[in-house]
Amino acid sequence: MANNEELFKNLIAHAKEYGFIFPSSEIYDGLAGVYDYGQNGVELKNNIRQYWWKAMVQHHENIVGIDAAIFMHPTVWKASGHVDAFNDPLIDNKDSKKRYRADVLVEDHIAKIEAKIAKEVEKAAKRFGDAFNEEQFRTTNPRVLEYTSQIDDIKQKFYGALERNDLEAIRQLIIDLGIVCPVSGTRNWTEVRQFNLMFSTAMGSVSEEASTVYLRPETAQGIFVNYLNVQKTGRMKIPFGIAQTGKAFRNEIVARQFIFRMREFEQMEMQYFVRPGTEMEWFNYWKQERMKWHLSLGIPAEKYRWHDHEKLAHYANAASDIEFEFPFGFKELEGIHSRTDFDLSNHQKYSGKKIQYFDPELNDSYTPYVVETSIGLDRMFLAVLSYAYHEEKLEDGSERVVLRIPPVLAPYKAAVLPLVAKDGLPEKAREVMDTLKFEFMCQYEEKDSIGRRYRRQDAIGTPYAITIDHQTLEDNTVTIRERDTMQQDRVNIEQLPKIIRKRLQDNK
Ligand code: ATP
Fold first, then answer.
1. What is the arithmetic mean of pLDDT over 387-392?
2. Does residue 333 line the site of ligand 1, with CB under 6 A?
3. How far apart are CA 318 and CA 91, in angstroms?
4. H or E element: which one contains 3?
5. Core-most of 83, 152, 448, 480, by most CB within 10 Å?
6. Domains of the chain, with CATH numbers?
7. H or E stretch covering 462
8. Which has the minimum average pLDDT: 51-65, 245-259, 280-294, 347-361?
């Protein structure tokens, strides 16, 4: 079995070979951090987006959607704090000429110490067996205590320096910790600089008139500036939510790990407007709801974990991430943030327009508080793909690559395959295709042996393969083959829509 790094490489190659993801402008050698979705990728992406939209908008009577423009008035980004504070601290290694995020270097260093603690715990658990009390061990073992205090010390220095925007102290910390460049192995670091992640361009044709506009770095602001429009025209009563999916752009310092960190990506965000003072209740509610959504796909709970933020963004009073175990470790997939009234209040201040809600129950007006859920569509795509990708050895000694994509998300739900391309089987298969294609995405294939066609469908994650054979012409039955178990049942053609619908509903 390939190790994680190899698996990840194979997955990227597979995603390209089977039309899921191509590097952008590949014939010109690509553009760093930008990717295109191919014929199968776009289906999977649309399905993830739709699954999210249904869960958020269709299933909640008090959540509605919008689709705001990517360009917004430049003052939006002043009010939101992005012009002044949407920065990453960057540092270069003078020998390798590689650029890093200073915060990521420090966090990776902390992760290494955490791994040492985990090793101590594991060793002790083995030694003590059933009698092992992990909590007690973690709070009394001298070595673990030493590591824990090292971590606390680093965090205190690091977050303190970030807070004060003391870039020299961050550099000093990197040097004191002995952090080396993973490429050159040296500690020959430059100064730390702040780097704003927003892309800007000029709007207007004459240069003197042109004004700087930004490509939005998050979709949320399109919702905040439309809060009043939606609340009034939709006659929404607090608590209520506004959902949106769409492109966002960030000039990431290091765009790598495939579609995990892109410069152009898509977000699925929902802002939930609540009465001040109730935000923690709703924060916890949405944490639970969002985790339920992930688990409803049938991806095992061990693949997910929570990470509570210690350093809060400039707008938040509580924040937790849902992390997913990608092939390169647990990393952020979704954020749930309590954003207080930061955004609405600032838009009120900068625009001079009153942004308030009259609460009939309290007989009082206030600026609503906001709890948001924010997930990257591309990151979710990568989570699904890395969970789904399997290289399998079969009983007969042959191998297959199968994408165990949750059926509800699969690009194609069914493949319709005449056993041979003669004897009237293609015509019959076309009839089957016609009865299914209006309800389900189906693919018709008659080239190559049936075995090779099954492999191709496994490789793009089609959950059901329907084969039309000579018996079909006699008794109107077909075989339906399950992608994961490869088990085949014989069923009547008339039953097919019902069977597929039922299996998709059960997500099996
Ligand atoms: P990170 O710490 O990984 O840079 P973030 O905390 O800045 O992410 P948020 O601003 O909370 O991310 O954005 C919400 C979600 O948008 C993230 O959970 C992630 O799924 C997605 N996202 C953010 N930046 C990118 C990116 N560069 N490429 C792909 N998805 C992204």
1. 96
2. yes
3. 29
4. none
5. 480
6. 1-85+197-401 (3.30.930.10), 87-194 (3.30.40.230), 412-506 (3.40.50.800)
7. none
8. 245-259
